[in-house]
Task: inverse folding
């Protein structure tokens, strides 16, 4: 069986085995909602299909458990049609689960800009959130590019490689309990036209010399986790986010948990 077939089989098996967990966590979440008000509310925009759907499905399972443990509520949307100022005012945290920065309605774009610039809530973006450029007939969203440090997507390592992520600011709350470095396996590492470092606060970067197997697709200075402190909203971009196995990686889930706790409290 090919590596691709193995991946699909493992992903489907993981999601099937998680079915009962989803039901149990849903019931627990309902019970929590009936007994107390959530500490904060989260809205997550998630890709509805394609290659990243298994990651999104696994994220929903993990987030359901986090919501019960940490006492927050979470809602999901799969496009930007509902997004306006009134809609976003209900939420203290906006999570972009691989949803790209194009094909947003003009109303949604304006509301999101105000949400971030005025610090109305926090933001966490994953992986596809930096797919910046002209894609699928949509123009570059210049504001979002600046939000991400002035970058433009160039290419990715389609063969998937493993690598060591080096923690650059262990004092930041999002990097708590992550040590000096951690491993990420079989990731689709993105590259950009330049490093966002001059315009953002880099929290972690990938050591490209550790890529296994080796590849010629490199950036040199390659940040993979960062926050843009020029905006009032607490925000963090986490590059990793292609496959569901990330939710079996303790470093990744620790980073995700820390980011939620930090970004949701303005």
Result:
């Amino acid at each position: 069986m090919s590596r691709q077939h193995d991946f699909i089989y493992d992903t489907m098996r993981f999601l099937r085995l998680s079915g009962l967990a989803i039901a149990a966590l849903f019931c627990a979440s309902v019970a929590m909602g009936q007994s107390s008000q959530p500490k904060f509310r989260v809205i997550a925009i998630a890709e509805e299909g394609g290659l990243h759907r298994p990651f999104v499905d696994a994220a929903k399972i993990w987030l359901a458990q986090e919501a019960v443990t940490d006492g927050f509520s979470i809602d999901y949307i799969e496009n930007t049609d509902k997004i306006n100022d009134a809609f976003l005012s209900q939420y203290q945290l906006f999570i972009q689960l691989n949803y790209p920065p194009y094909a947003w309605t003009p109303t949604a774009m304006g509301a999101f800009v105000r949400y971030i610039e005025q610090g109305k809530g926090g933001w966490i973006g994953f992986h596809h959130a930096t797919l910046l450029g002209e894609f699928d007939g949509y123009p570059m969203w210049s504001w979002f590019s600046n939000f991400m440090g002035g970058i433009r997507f160039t290419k990715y390592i389609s063969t998937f490689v493993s690598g060591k992520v080096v923690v650059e600011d262990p004092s930041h709350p999002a990097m708590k309990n992550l040590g000096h470095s951690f491993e990420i396996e079989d990731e689709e590492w993105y590259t950009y036209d330049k490093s966002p470092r001059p315009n953002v606060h880099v929290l972690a970067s990938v050591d490209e010399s550790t890529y296994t197997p080796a590849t010629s697709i490199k950036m040199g200075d390659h940040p993979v986790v960062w926050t843009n402190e020029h905006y009032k909203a607490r925000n963090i971009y986490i590059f990793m986010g292609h496959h569901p196995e990330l939710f079996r990686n303790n470093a990744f889930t620790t980073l995700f948990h820390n980011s939620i706790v930090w970004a949701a409290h303005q």
